[in-house]
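quick one, two chains, predict together pls
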Amino acid sequence: MANARALDKRRKSVRNIKKITRTMELIATARFKKAMDRAMASTEYTRRITQVVTDLANSGTEVKHPLLEGRDSTENAALVVLSANRGLCGGYNGNVVRTGQQRLDELKDTYANVKLVVSGKRGLANFKFRGIEVHEGYLHFEDKPAFDEVEPIANEFLADFISGKLDRLDVAYTKFISSAKQQAVVETLLPLGSLDDDDSEDTGGANNDYEFMPSAESILEEVVPASFRVKLFKCFLDAAVSEQIARMVAMKNATENAEDMIKNLSMTYNRARQAQITNEIMEIIGGVEALNN
Amino acid sequence: MAGINCVVVTPEETALEQEVDSIVVPLFDGSKGIQHNHAPMIGRLGAGELKLSAAGSVQRFFLEGGFVQVLDNTVTVLTGQAVEAETLNVDEIQSQLDELNSKGPAVGDEQELRAQQVSSLRVQRRLARQNS
């Protein structure tokens, strides 16, 4: 039978771990709520931008922009992988890196130069481990990505795309589908394809005669980059929300496991203790018997 | 006087939603006033001041680029960032401006960017000076 004291020690350490995971779970829950609120607040902007585009289209403007059109050239592509700075969040980082790498291999087959941009310490470490060169890494994105921080990155990609230094931009991130489901996905952000969002609703077709200042074309010129920037920003927000959920779930599981372990250890400990006592009694009785004889 | 509903939306949040009497938006080529029953309009914004007047009080914001949409007495301002003019600090902006000016001449692509930054800072400085 195992040593009772060693068992007790183990039980204590498991208890401490449980306390830590429980706290981490609570922190992740609080952060998730905040990140979620931010993500919800940002949908308003996307909705309005989409509406402006719809209005532009309704007014007879041809929605045409260099950012919307695909390129035949297969020179340069870029892949952005959004991972977390910290671990202890289950398969979150692993999934997004795996999905990203798959796309990276595909891109490398068709494009001559593929630039890899990774956000998050975990992703960087993972690619380094796999021996893949990362061209640019960001570490400053935590659970609250700010638009000010994402904008310069977006502008850089925009400038590269317009000047022809970039033909395609993909982003691998964990999409937030619902609070019960998040999925690591790869999306092509440049060329933008179509401006209509998946969740765009028909505005009822009330054709308003807008006055455009200065002109519909000029506004379209501005709307498209803005739409791209906000799309990239949304990816960062989604990734942040998903990370918190992943951590929450992972920590919840860890806490539950710790509880089970404590239960098992307690049982073994009690048995060991009882066996020890029985042993001692037997020894005493044996001694007494020996003396009596 | 009948009011208009003004909504300021940034990618991060809905910064403001309020009933006001009149609005002055900074279009790309100058300011434009909007009052009740304005015709539907979509306009491109430049760097400048957004002024909301409601019942005698005036709220001022600094905007940089974006769009304004006017429809059914609702004015939607879409912009990257809306900064309340009262939070702008003259000295801070001046030092940023000095720093830019001391960098020496910009070349090539930078030229346009620099000119944009300088003019945006100048507008911010003007707004900040109105504070006092």
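The first helix of chain B runs from residue 90 to 101.
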